[in-house]
């Protein structure tokens, strides 16, 4: 019998790609999403890709009774992948309480409901933002957690602690914290991808919208950093590679392969790319010329960070192996799809 998994935030960017990979691997998926940052038709697109329609419940993770009812309606849920969260760094500075409420209470509700419904494990979407500017690169999971730069980043740190404390208190659950680096790109079918709300704050959606002519110019935030070309360095990981890491992590929990009841993995490529290198790679991969200018630094930006993913590579047997060119082509194909559909 197929094992049943609850995916919160499953119509969102990373969630939708993960639902496809879970289904491809034989899991049965129940999605919960309040559609605050995604569209209901993502469920149709997941079905088009995988041939299987996931169950979908429009429920807010803040609604304890609503979530309780979801577990009752779909008995036997074995694991949860918890993506549902608010994620805009700048907005979190303006609306800290909204961020703390949404991101913390959603998780607390799940952790309270898991034992009641016999759910064994949870995978939590954490972030490389917990490392701040690491002292050593590439950064390993053993690196110290730095004071968060934003309420959003702080919710990731606090949520990691909430999970650790809950397990330490004797709760029967198991957890894996995945610290994502910078997820980019879209499914090769271009049926699902990232749907930025308003003017994008992140590099890739701004870049592809500029290439499309929706934005006039991409601003490169700073070329005076202490990096080879002066622009910031990140570890850009293909969203489908990232999605696959969740399936392997879920297998690991459900097959009792964990070394500790709470484990943490860096999910990145191990390759740092500068903003200027990324622009060059996009132009080379797509043949599309990009209009950009160098401007001043963006407040709060980390100079450089990239993952040491060797623990995930060795322990999970997982590796991000999609080239940056293929990844950027998928991002461009998604932007073209949004135009064709009249969405953007
Ligand atoms: P996303 O906004 O596309 O997806 C999140 C989904 O959760 C959305 O569909 C939204 O409608 C839903 N949601 C939000 N609050 C909810 C609630 N209270 N109840 C039910 N549904 C709710 O974001 P994403 O990029 O797919 O990110 C997924 C997770 O990964 C988030 O936890 C995010 O913080 C984390 N993360 C993202 C990145 C990134 O760069 N995209 C990096 C590191 C970590
Ligand atoms: C990447 C690089 C910018 C836009 C954020 C969150 C982080 C994580 C991922 C969830 C940086 C530069 C960007 C632009 C630019 N999310 N840039 N022009 O800042 O690494 O991380 O998203 O956990 O928490 O902080 O990602 O895509 O915004 O920026 O030059 O218009 O691109 O300076 O060097 P970031 P990003």
UniProtKB/TrEMBL annotation:
<dbReference type="Pfam" id="PF16363">
    <property type="entry name" value="GDP_Man_Dehyd"/>
</dbReference>
<feature type="domain" description="NAD(P)-binding">
    <location>
        <begin position="6"/>
        <end position="329"/>
    </location>
</feature>
<comment type="subunit">
    <text>Homodimer.</text>
</comment>
<dbReference type="InterPro" id="IPR016040">
    <property type="entry name" value="NAD(P)-bd_dom"/>
</dbReference>
<protein>
    <recommendedName>
        <fullName>UDP-glucose 4-epimerase</fullName>
        <ecNumber>5.1.3.2</ecNumber>
    </recommendedName>
</protein>
<comment type="similarity">
    <text>Belongs to the NAD(P)-dependent epimerase/dehydratase family.</text>
</comment>
<dbReference type="GO" id="GO:0005829">
    <property type="term" value="C:cytosol"/>
</dbReference>
<keyword id="KW-0413">Isomerase</keyword>
<keyword id="KW-0119">Carbohydrate metabolism</keyword>
<dbReference type="GO" id="GO:0006012">
    <property type="term" value="P:galactose metabolic process"/>
</dbReference>
<comment type="pathway">
    <text>Carbohydrate metabolism; galactose metabolism.</text>
</comment>
<dbReference type="InterPro" id="IPR036291">
    <property type="entry name" value="NAD(P)-bd_dom_sf"/>
</dbReference>
<keyword id="KW-0520">NAD</keyword>
<dbReference type="InterPro" id="IPR005886">
    <property type="entry name" value="UDP_G4E"/>
</dbReference>
<dbReference type="GO" id="GO:0003978">
    <property type="term" value="F:UDP-glucose 4-epimerase activity"/>
</dbReference>
